[in-house]
């Protein structure tokens, strides 16, 4: 198998690398859901932990057109037909739900339906399916605020510049438990359409590794490894009410 660096597997993710996907902003430690998945895929492909090289690549750049400097990227990137025009994806390693966070005691925190969300000023990270959910599912009266990093969205929420933010559910649990502790999860969205939204590993368009990496992810799903890793690092993510 020919990789970026001979005998090594080069894996990319954004910096900082957030919990619960990574622990302590250190992808190398094998802790956190995506770090654990990355090393499980590497092992399935025949690479020891010592043979994995991490690289920092901004979220939006990971799936932008152009040649890649990594073998695959793992960074909560949802598989979409639009993105597939520029890059390859492995099969999905995580089924995603999007969630809404608002400050406790705010009017946004009382929302129980998508209709309630329409009246609010919502924000999300640019280029994400979270932002798509605001535009396509909620269709708010006021245009959504788009931020280049989740950190900026969190600050805007804290400072009252927006009423609520949309992120994926595990990130929502982490933000409300550790980062913006006066915020709460208002609820989660149902999956849109038939197939669930899924995170996939991102590869160069036409990469010779795509089928091997997909086989590795499929094997980890079938033998229960992905479920075990999810249980360990993301077990909270089922408790949020569903917004309809």
Automatic annotation (TrEMBL):
Domain of life: Bacteria
Domain Solute-binding protein family 3/N-terminal positions: 8-237
Keyword presence, Signal: yes
InterPro entries (alphabetical): Iontro_rcpt_C, Solute-binding_3/MltF_N
Gene3D superfamilies (UniProt xref): Periplasmic binding protein-like II (3.40.190.10)
Pfam families xref list: SBP_bac_3
UniProt keyword terms in alphabetical order: Signal
Native organism: Streptomyces graminofaciens
Organism placement in taxonomy: Bacteria, Bacillati, Actinomycetota, Actinomycetes, Kitasatosporales
SUPFAM superfamilies: Periplasmic binding protein-like II
Ionotropic glutamate receptor C-terminal domain boundaries: 8-236
Name this polypeptide is given: ABC transporter, substrate-binding protein, family 3
